[in-house]
Amino acid sequence: xxxxxxxxxxxxxxxxxxxxxxxxxxxxxxxxxxxxxxxxxxxxxxxxxxxxxxxxxxxxxxxxxxxxxxxxxxxxxxxxxxxxxxxxxxxxxxxxxxxxxxxxxxxxxxxxxxxxxxxxxx
Length: 122
Hints:
Rossmann fold, alpha/beta, 122 residues, 42% helix
């Protein structure tokens, strides 16, 4: 089973995203910030990370930059899920190593379409 790590400081967003991702057939882990997410990666690398931009301790950009430096970190699909929706923010996320970008609020159809685009779903 494919694994997804959801990284967001909002427990509500993590729960909603977890439900969507589980319904798509993924096993899900959660982290409330980038630092905890990096720690979770030492246990098992996921196939997919959904990450928020603005979080305490370590934000999504710093997390993605550090993830890409890890052995195997270049193989993980990273999707930013955030309210930051202007072109400079999107470019900055992609430059940091994001593979895709979803605007909040999102629903299961949006997530599904992005995962199909990334080749994680048929």
